[in-house]
Design a protein that fits this description.
Layout: H1 2-16, E1 27-33, H2 35-38, E2 43-44, E3 47-48, E4 62-65, E5 71-73, H3 93-102, E6 112-116, H4 132-144, E7 150-157, H5 166-186, E8 194-198, H6 207-216, E9 222-226, H7 241-258, H8 267-298
Parallel strand pairs: 1-6, 1-7, 4-6, 7-8, 8-9
Antiparallel strand pairs: 2-3, 4-5
Bound molecules: 2-acetamido-2-deoxy-beta-D-glucopyranose (3 copies).
Keywords: Hydrolase, Signal
Organism: Camellia sinensis var. sinensis (China tea)
Protein name: Sialate O-acetylesterase domain-containing protein
Length: about 300
């Protein structure tokens, strides 16, 4: 009996000291939407110029979830193995991560884990719950959480493809809101912060309708930054590398300013405290129990 109890205690103590690594409190950000989120900065004639500005440089504390669901050190182009049918260039993700990590006032420390999911040329209707893109996003987000950490936000830049038909533009606001709510539901994060980008221009004539929807969406913790005025590549379709740098900084600012209190990614700590507490209680109960036995033996 005593041996069994000791064994139980030892097993319990094992849980007290989980293999801890700094990755346990990874700050995870999901990047989704279409080409400007995927990144086309520095692309000319289907070739990336390979120019990586200082703000987009790799950093051992910035990881990305690869297409085969492994954490690897992140580097441009972030979406190279995700948005595979096109040439990818610089997007806002690396700038965002570097800016957030370098901010001295923010309590974001440790590791930033980026989960690239954007695919060029996709309409909002292709991101609806149950679609391939949606399932892919939710699947990658869940995989990202496997070895700890917490999802801090979704960065979303999409809508250009919905400016072409009047019907898509008219339905945009409803579809966008439903997408955000479904996603929060399936990620079990009802107030997941979402930072989206309002279009500067679009592929069709209904830009204003889509912008109105983006700027007018009235959901808690959904913030919008405006891409109006950012520079476009000579193709007039994509943001330049420099514009992507500006956009990444704008998104990082919006994120940093939205933090009401220092970010707490305490999931491991909470469970740690819980184990300490429950082990302590078990030991206490055990002592009382053993005490009783001893007393009974004496009597
Ligand atoms: C684009 O690249 C192709 C193949 O390298 C070349 O033949 C073509 O002249 C280039 N076009 C421009 C506009 O630079
Ligand atoms: C790439 O193209 C193939 C063939 O058209 C398609 O099945 C696949 O879904 C595309 N992948 C992406 C990420 O766009
Ligand atoms: C990229 O973003 C710019 C600025 O919002 C926009 O004008 C352009 O239409 C976007 N392009 C695509 C293909 O999404």
């Amino acid at each position: 009996m005593l041996a069994f109890v000791l064994l139980m205690l030892l097993a319990y103590a094992g849980l007290l000291f989980p293999t801890s690594s700094q990755d346990n409190n990874k700050n995870i950000f999901i990047l989704a939407g279409q080409s400007n989120m995927s990144g086309r900065g520095g692309i000319n004639n289907v070739t990336w110029d390979g120019v990586v500005p200082p703000q987009c440089q790799p950093n051992p504390a910035i990881l990305r979830l690869s297409s085969d669901l492994k954490w690897v050190e992140a580097s441009e182009p972030l979406h190279k193995d995700i948005d595979v049918n096109v040439t990818c260039g610089v997007g806002p993700g690396m700038v965002f991560a570097n800016t957030v990590l370098n901010n001295k006032d923010s309590s974001i420390g440790g590791v930033v884990g980026l989960v690239p999911c954007a695919i060029g040329g996709t309409k909002i209707s292709e991101w609806g719950r149950g679609s391939h893109l949606y399932n892919q996003l939710v699947g990658r987000a869940s995989a990202a959480l496997q070895d700890g950490g917490s999802i801090q936000a979704l960065l979303w830049y999409q809508g250009e493809s919905d400016t072409v038909s009047p019907e898509d533009a008219a339905l945009y606001k409803g579809r966008l809101g439903r997408f955000f709510m479904d996603l929060r539901d399936d990620l079990q994060s009802p107030l997941l912060p979402i930072f989206q980008v309002a279009l500067a221009s679009g592929l069709g004539p209904y830009i204003e309708k889509v912008r109105e929807a983006q700027l007018g969406i009235d959901l808690t913790n959904v913030k919008c930054v405006d891409a109006k005025g950012l520079q476009l590549e000579p193709d007039h379709v994509h943001l330049t590398t420099q514009a992507e740098v500006q956009l990444g900084e704008m998104l990082a600012d919006a994120f940093l300013h939205s933090l009401p209190t220092p970010i707490q990614s305490t999931a491991p700590k909470t469970s740690h405290n819980f184990f300490i507490f429950s082990t302590f209680s078990i030991v206490l109960i055990m002592f009382r129990y053993l005490n009783l036995i001893v007393e009974q033996d004496i009597i």
